[in-house]
Design a protein that fits this description.
Radius of gyration: 19 Å
Largest sheet: 8 strands, mixed
Number of strands: 21
Order of helices and strands: EEHEEHEEEHEEEHEEHEEEEEEHHEEE
Helix content: 10-25%
Structural class: alpha/beta
Strand content: 25-35%
Shape: globular
Distance between the termini: 58 Å
Length: 359
């Protein structure tokens, strides 16, 4: 049995050739987004949950992940189209600290709970990358969402503890109660055990859900059934696997398909896949803001948390179970792993039913 909390991501500093493959031969720059943007106010009509009007945004992007989740089919088109920006939604990122001065996040990160106040606040770049997937200005799904930094990793050991997570969850409940006008999401990009359930984490998930906060969990960077991994086996959590795009052959004209990222968890406990292979996200060198490529289910979870922020902006009365139903229902158009996860689809933030509203 492994009873420790580890982060579910590995960073990659190369592999830019992947970009060329997915974009049909044109490799993007390593950072930034061309902001050729068109906006308009729309009402989302893709759900039975009461909706409010949100803004349509279309922009050129170098993020292959954002490019993938806004369309049902391949190839990619270098554009990120979405309704809403995550405004009015708070995402609590449980991690090892966030570089709040990073240009992708500056001005929208609030420091929250810290389980280890006697040490430096920022352990590594992992939390910054996850937060960037959620809400980066140009590299995140919901660029206007608020991020709250919930530090549950001890920098000295680069591990968290179950007690730190539970204490962090209690703090989140109290903080959310102080901001009842905002909807919220909790992002858990870590694994704690690979052989058993952990009742304390199950209870924390239940408490957050009961307070109206969906809990998004990374499935884990390990080749095994996610139902054996805690907290991916916590009832009610939205569990996210990592996907990639690959060619079915070596020829440059071979068909592009979505597939599970090798070395990541699978199985019936997964609710959705999201990009998690060589995805461009915020990082840092020392305390200097950079971007780099990351691989892992941590990043995938971040993209799903961002998608939920968009959904809650448009559907502020949606319950966590309705949020989970929406994520699963809209993902069914693309099966990623037909053998090991045949009923789990790819995150899709678009909608086939959009109603324009005059300004």
């Amino acid at each position: 049995m492994r009873r420790r909390v580890s982060l579910s991501t590995r960073s990659i500093r190369t592999a830019l050739a992947v970009a060329a493959t997915l974009l049909g031969g044109c490799a993007p720059a390593t950072s930034g987004v061309s902001r050729s943007m068109h906006t308009g106010v729309v009402a989302s009509a893709a759900s039975s949950v009461a909706a409010v009007t949100t803004e349509y945004v279309e922009a050129q992007t170098v993020s292959l992940a954002l490019d993938r989740i806004d369309q049902q089919s391949l190839p990619l088109d270098r554009t990120y189209r979405h309704f809403g920006t995550g405004s009015g939604v708070t995402v609590y990122v449980f991690d090892g600290g966030i570089l709040d001065t990073h240009p992708e996040l500056a001005g929208r990160v609030r420091r929250g709970f810290n389980a280890f106040p006697g040490e430096e606040h920022l352990c590594n770049a992992h939390g910054t990358a996850v937060a960037g997937a959620v809400a980066g200005t140009t590299l995140g799904v919901a660029p206007a969402a608020e991020i709250v930094d919930v530090k549950m990793v001890e920098c000295r050991r680069l591990r968290g503890t179950i007690d730190a997570i539970v204490q962090g969850a209690r703090w989140v409940l109290a903080d959310h109660a102080r901001h009842p006008e905002r909807r919220a999401v909790a992002n858990w990009s870590f694994i704690a055990d690979t052989a058993a359930t952990i009742p304390a984490l199950d209870s924390a998930v239940t408490s957050l859900i009961d307070a109206g906060i969906p809990v998004v969990v990374s499935a884990g960077n390990i080749e095994m059934n996610a139902c054996r991994i805690a907290p991916a086996n916590s009832p009610g959590a939205i569990v996210v696997g990592a996907s990639r795009v690959r060619r079915l052959g070596t020829d440059s004209t071979a068909r592009l398909v979505d597939a599970r990222t090798p070395g990541t968890a699978f199985g019936a406990c997964l609710d959705v896949f999201a990009p998690g292979d060589s995805v461009l996200l915020p990082s840092m060198e020392g305390r200097v803001a950079t971007t780099q490529l990351w691989t892992g289910t941590s990043m995938s979870a971040g993209y799903v948390s961002g998608a939920i922020a968009l959904y809650l902006e448009a559907h502020p009365t949606a319950t966590p179970s309705e949020v989970a139903d929406h994520i699963r229902a809209t993902s069914r158009g693309t099966v990623v792993d037909p053998v090991r996860s045949p009923h789990t689809g790819l995150l899709f933030i678009g909608s086939d039913k959009r109603v324009a509203v005059a300004r």
